[in-house]
Amino acid sequence: MRSRLVALSSAAALALAVGGCAGTTTPPVVAGQAAGMTPEERKIGAEANPQLIAEFGGAYTGPQAAYVEQVGKNIAVQSGLGDARSAFTVTLLNSPVNNAFAIPGGYIYTTRELVALMDNEAELAGVLGHEVGHVAARHAQQRQKAAQQNSILGTVGAVLSGVLFGNSQIGQIGQQLAMQGSQLLTLKYSRSQETQADDLGIAYLSNAGYDPKAMATVLQSLAQQNALDGRLMGTSNQVPEWASTHPDPASRVSRALQAAQGKTGNVTNKDTFLTRINGMMYGDDPKQGVVEGNTFTHPVFGFEFKAPSGFFMINGTSAVSISGQSGKGQLTGAAYNGNMSTYIQNAFNALTDGKQQITPSSIQTTTVNGIPASYGTARVDSGNGAVDVTVFAYEFSKTQAFHFVTIAQGGNAAVFNPMYSSMRKISSAEAAAVKARKIAVYTVKSGDTLQSIAGRMAYSSNQLERFLVLNSLESNSSLQAGQKVKIVTY
Asked: Is the terminal CB of the chain with fewer CB neighbours within 10 Å at N or C?
């Protein structure tokens, strides 16, 4: 949740427009022979690019971004899409989720979190080549045509939200919560589109001299990270798959290995890759707030709250999502003119995009740890039972407010009461203590063990598991003196 909170903008609409749905056809595309991009495609991408960058936390700048851009443009040459070094725009996003995507016009994106998960340059080229493949095959345009015949928002809710109860009104609320932060704005590609992009990416790797097996190894790393995230959150099925835009990477590993068989290329450039990403930020950017266990702290706005027991949080660009078996919610902010009743009703209205009105039975006022607050709950018939929708808002100043929106089964709204009452302002000293994490490349010394190096990880729990996944290692892996590994430090 960045320091200037925004509502989902027109970038969301475009991301949804190119999000489409499964069931589209995939015409054949030969690596190196893609048709040139049209002026219309370039116009669509150019208009959407700055908005999407803003929605995904902004562009990450510096030497790591320059390196990602260089590798991306080099692999894009293999597509045959004109002068790829000028036709493609490659952006490293300042986002703490594992994601990569593309839009028409040659705009390719990957997050710093996904780059940090990679082990070598071939894997970076493979992920970027996969996205170049989506552009070369015009998958976004195919999905857009399919989307015109379907309810895009309905698809979003069905794919992303566990709070859908069958009623269109509740579905709309669920979609709003599911699309917190713009990390989850795009929809899944069809299986055939993913297969085609994998195949094109593997062909690009081989043609560029890279090890074509790198596509399979980076997919394996993604699968392992998804599994670890699920264990840390106490759930096996809530973690987005390559953020939501790509089908489960674990199911694609073996097929990618088969597709790489018989193809030439052996370059990985591991040491170069590690050297070039050394020092890159990892995890949450403090300017957007930080999740630590069940606590969210925003040092810029100066507040902190705790998720209820049994719930986990994911920090998005413009909101923080809270999810558990007994309910879901998010924290965000909106324009505030000093009238809390109006603010709360506007928050309810936003849940249904103004098409239907949900009105709380009453709006109560209170004080939470010295912060003026107001709240209201609306009981809604979902068609499968009643649900309680609550907006709980806090006045930080006459021009700044934040609010939770939560959904729980009817009569169970109180499950979020501990979270509402945990909101507090933090001191300047507490805010200053929130530090950014970064990737550091460590050279293994004689006598080092997996456990001893993992102990350097800047986490209070699960250090070994995080270290192993970050480096594609197993618990019985052996280390050699002089070997380079990634660790996370402050």
From this structure: C
Residue 165 resides in a domain = yes
Domain that includes residue 479, residue range: 437-489
Q: Indicate whether 363 and 262 sit together in one domain.
A: no
CATH at residue 453: 3.10.350.10
| Statement: residue 445 has pLDDT above 90 | yes
Q: Could you give the number of structural domains in the chain?
A: 3
Phi-psi group of 484: left, alpha or beta (phi > 0 → left; psi -120 to 50 → alpha; rest → beta): beta
CA distance to 9, 333, 402, per residue, from 343 (Å): 19, 10, 10
Global pTM? 0.83
Which residues are registered as beta bridge partners of 210? 267
* In a shared domain, residues 278 and 290: no
Same domain, 267 and 316: no
* Residue among 161, 129, 146, 159 at smallest CA distance from 31: 129
Statement to judge: residues 462 and 320 lie in one domain: no
| Residue count (the chain) | 490
Indicate whether 378 belongs to any domain.
yes
Instruction: Write the DSSP string, 240-301.
Output: -GGGGTS--GGGGHHHHHHHHTT----B--HHHHHHHHTT-EES--GGG-EEETTEEEETTT
Minimum mean pLDDT range among 57-71, 185-199, 255-269, 291-305: 185-199
Largest interatomic CA distance in the chain: 69
Does one domain contain both 234 and 250? yes
Residue with token string 């593997």 = 202
Kindly tell me if the per-residue pLDDT of 242 is higher than 50: no
CA-nearest of 391, 397, 398, 427 to 304 is: 427
Instruction: Give percent above pLDDT 70 in the chain.
Output: 79
pLDDT, tens only, 69-93: 999 999 999 988 767 678 899 999 9
Query: In terms of domains, do 179 and 92 share one?
Result: yes
Q: For residues 352 and 322, which has the higher predicted lDDT (pLDDT)? A: 322
What is the structure's pLDDT at 477? 97
Distance CA 420, CA 369 (A): 10
**Residue 4 placed within a domain:** no
The terminus-to-terminus CA distance of the chain in angstroms comes to 20
